[in-house]
Amino acid sequence: MTHVPDPRPGxxxxxxxxxxxxxxxxxxIVMFAAETTMHYTHYxxxxxIVTITALIAVSLAVGSGLRADDLGLSPRTWARGARWAAVIxxxxxxxxxxxxxxxxxxxxFLNDAYRxxxxxxxxxxxxxxxxxxxxxxxxxxxxxxGALLRRQSVAVTIAAQAVLFGLWHxxxxxxxxxxxxxxxxxxxxxxxxxxxxxxxxxxFTGASxxxxxxxxxxxxxxxxxxxxxxxxxxxxxxxxxxxxKLG
Length: 247
What we know:
Blueprint: H1 11-40, H2 49-63, H3 68-71, H4 78-100, H5 103-106, H6 117-149, H7 154-168, H8 176-179, H9 181-187, H10 190-219, H11 223-246
GO molecular function, one term: metallopeptidase activity
Domain CAAX prenyl protease 2/Lysostaphin resistance protein A-like: 121-234
Keywords: Hydrolase, Membrane, Metalloprotease, Protease, Transmembrane, Transmembrane helix
């Protein structure tokens, strides 16, 4: 039987790329659905839905061909990543401590969720790492960044995951101005304050996502991203508790 060559040599490659982007879009949709579910439900299991989504996404990514290098988890980057992580945690903690010592800046830490120091510490060392930092970094700087780097330039990859990371915080920031007295005093209350709070959160986290992405690409490791994300959120939670006590 005579073999008939494909009249369009690149057609299979195009189909594979289209399928690849469809899968990536599907992952993003599932991620955002999980985040929305977690925010608007109050079941114990729903608190862990983003964590579960991240673990499943990583498993599927590895099964589809992404390697430890693609995910920023290669053992050869651990030493360099750990050095960056140590410096980052130190700098962030010192910066937050200094801000806490300045009364006008201290007010920005007045988050209603962390009025009690015990709860703030539990959140900082258990809930924030397991429910926020690790799953979000695995999803955005791990799977999404690793997948995009296989098809796109570094600049496009960093920009794309940063935009997605900013939009990721739309749902979680809807009550930002009402739940944080310091931010509420700045942007105001009511609908206008809520909108300004969301826009500000999206812009800030989008810019943060660009920094995280740059760290991920520069070091080749997820550790600096995990360190920066954890230090900012966890130290911020503990600082909130101290802000309430000092206030």
